Amino acid sequence: MIFVTVGSQLPFDRLVNSVDDWAGSQPQVEIFGQVGDTDNPPKNFASVSTMSPEEYQRRFAEADLIVGHAGMGTIIAALELGKPLLMLPRLASLKESRNDNQVGTARHFRDFALFEAMQSESEVPAKMNHMLANLDAYRRASDEFGVADSLIDAIREFVGS
Fold it and tell me: For residue 45, what are the CA distances in angstroms to 14, 34, 140?
């Protein structure tokens, strides 16, 4: 199952619409999304605007792949649970965020064994196909490198830079 999450502050239709377009050609793939307040909810996968913290944690834990923004909460949850994360940073120029902090966050974490970062929503189909085809490799990376230790090291490095 793929869990799409956009956080709770502002809509992120660029990501949701891109995943929805991809999902239209992938009816065999189960997707559930927490898509925030949007005037354009997905047509090809089930979604809610918000959910309780318990439901969010359950969906996150059950997912094989997380697709979301490059927010630190999403990154930390993915690291803690050893979940592969495909992230697209929100952009201030598109009024998806108040600043471009997620661009730097995605750039920093893109080389972590569990993560893939996109610069554009046009990369969604290829990146999702790649990550789904390589889920076993992402799981092995999580097991081999010790997610908890890597989490602490990655956060220390990021905060220190």
Answer: 15, 11, 28
